[in-house]
Amino acid sequence: MIHRVSIVCIALLAGASAIADIIHCPTNFILGDVCFPQTVEYFDLDLDSNGTVDFAFVADIVSFAGIHPENQNKYLIHPSPPPNIGGGVAALDSAYVIGPNSATGSAEDWFGSDNYSTLVFVLDTGITGEFYHNRAFIGLEFEADDGVHYGWIDVEGASRTMENHLLKDSSLIIHGWAYESTPGVSIVAGAIPEPTAIGLTLITALAAIVIRRRFL
Predict the structure, then answer these.
(1) Does residue 31 form part of some domain?
(2) Please, which residues bridge with residue 6 across strands?
(3) Residue 32: which of 165, 178, 157, 116 has the closest Cα?
(4) pLDDT tens, 133-182?
(5) Is residue 178 part of a domain?
(6) 110 domain-assigned
(7) Is-contact 22 58, C-beta < 8 A?
(8) Per the structure, how many domains does the chain have?
(9) C-alpha dihedral (183, 189, 193, 195), degrees to nearest 10
(10) How far apart, in whole angstroms, are the C-alpha atoms of residue 30 and residue 13?
(11) How far is residue 4's CA from residue 158's CA, in Å, rounded to a whole number?
């Protein structure tokens, strides 16, 4: 059985763009922490709350967790050696500059495909994915009505746990996300609005999380 979750960050942005350019949505959601027999869970992320899914996550509680971009959206990867196409999602440190020049002269590259890219993959022969037992940032590039925006998602590969006799190596904790409200402007991984701006726009910083669960 498939378990699908959609989370929308509702930020009341009236007047906020003049105070802070970074829109931040904190959360603490575990993906892949589902009970038997629901062995696969999907997470649909609408970054700018415009009613369109920008990125989708998947977590199989046994072996795999990944991310998939909708439309022409992209994320930063560490490319696989040629002739392979794609690569694992890059686990970025805080202070990494995410923007139009992120793939210039660096080890990362922008990528998007119809398939899920690996965050964690547990095999009998070993484990791949830079987010296994690691908390880091995913660099994002996504299309909005006013142009291309840059952002990040704070993701952590959950520690190994045992439930219903299954090892849940590929569960993820999504701690939140943020993006630059100005098109084409870079954002620093982990950057959030300044405290003074949060104080002036409390309704924006205290974002509401709306969780819709649908079983297919």
Answers:
(1) no
(2) 44, 212
(3) 157
(4) 899 999 999 999 999 999 999 999 875 555 555 555 667 889 999 999 99
(5) yes
(6) yes
(7) no
(8) 1
(9) -170
(10) 27
(11) 19
